[in-house]
Give the backbone structure.
Amino acid sequence: MIEALQFEFMQHALLAGLLVSFAAGIIGSLIVVNRMVFLAGGIAHTSYGGIGLAVYFGLPIFLGASVFAVAAALLIAALTLKKRHRMDTFIGLIWAVGMAIGVIFVDLTPGYNVDLMSYLFGSILAVSSEDLYFMAALLALILFVVTFWYRDILAVSYDSEYAALRGVNVKFFYTLILVLSALTVVIAIKVVGLILVIAMLTIPVYIAEKLSHSLFSMMFLSGAVATLFTLVGLWLSYTYNLTSGASIIIISALSLGVFLLFNRGR
């Protein structure tokens, strides 16, 4: 693995893994404590519509997926804030329509044979310099938002009714968390693909939650755990010529199993 670091694509992959892991750790913690896992899954699959549009119109994939994912997040926020009892229906509908739009526009693109596997299961070894800039900017934005509004986000995440009584704008922070989740999902798709992205956002968080006593420590620890899983998954992928995204998730799942067995035995 060490000799592989002389290649630029491996350097990009490692840096992307680090950036995405910490972004996923922070946002994944917010997704879990706010019980938004299903919403994040809906956004992940809906973003494929943006990928199809970007392919058809010749736009950067990240741009198309990001705009579409943020639009889906805003729509989901508007629908679920008022009718949470119908949340699963709305998300299922948006999920299916988003993916259908993506598939249709890919089919309509003349002379383009898109590699669906790279979006479904990730292609971290194909990360470009522009992708890294996007990932770094998003992580900086996430760190700024979480640091500046930490107390408000904490209040909204654990007791939204009490937060509203304190004058916190619950609707704003609910929407903000969803938008940041959408952008994080987009960059995580590059690493593990849209099918596996929810595992990356939840498995490290579950482990960190059992070892943490505050939301802040949970965010930091889940980012560190996700980074470890990504590095080991990359090593496994490089050594045995396996798909990188699937390798990362397999390592995450096996580690979770070991953690649960150890925790139960203790």
Notes: The radius of gyration is 18 Å. The chain has one domain: 2-259.
